[in-house]
Amino acid sequence: MLAKATGRGAEQYRRVVFDLSAHIGDRIYVEIVDRATGGWGHISVDDVNVPVRRP
Q: Is the pLDDT of residue 28 over 70?
């Protein structure tokens, strides 16, 4: 695992930035998992950006 962020149990979006520039050119997978238990839940993900070269 290169990086990880977890939710805060709130509806408000928050920006999370990972500097994975050392891995540009590598094949990287993004996995989004909901491990909540119970009768209700959801995941909201927006605006995923993956640079393919260094600026």
A: yes
